[in-house]
Amino acid sequence: MKKIVSVITLLVIASALVMSAACGPKDVPSAEIPSAGQLYKLVAEAGKLEAMTSVPAGDYLDIYGIDASKLEESAWYMSENPSLNADEVAIFKLSDASYKDALVQLLNDRIARQLQVAQTYSPEEASKLEKAEVVSAGNYVYYCIGAESDAMMNVLKTNIK
Question: Model pTM?
């Protein structure tokens, strides 16, 4: 009798396990990457950025020759007074990954031009630009310029995989 009860108990437990596995979630979605605007907010907090302004997409698309058809979303912020402060954050999510290298080059060219200008008016601002690095990860291309650029870049590296 004990054997029959043990076998029945094992069968009940086994079928309960099978049913709970069948009814449970099939796959747990991985954490979503925040939007470019949300990423900027996280970066701004980490970088202690003040007095930043959003750069309208129309401005940077035209001025720097960025192909809007290759972008899914973007956020570009710079100091409200760029003649005194080189702080800047640019985050681009690409809809066309083949555009990644071209965008990295465009952004590196921009930073190089900004560095030339900053060297004439502020060694401190120039040093921020010298540390700047354009990073591409997945479908994202981004950079951060500021006194806390390491902390800002770490926020992006942590959130974009």
Answer: 0.79
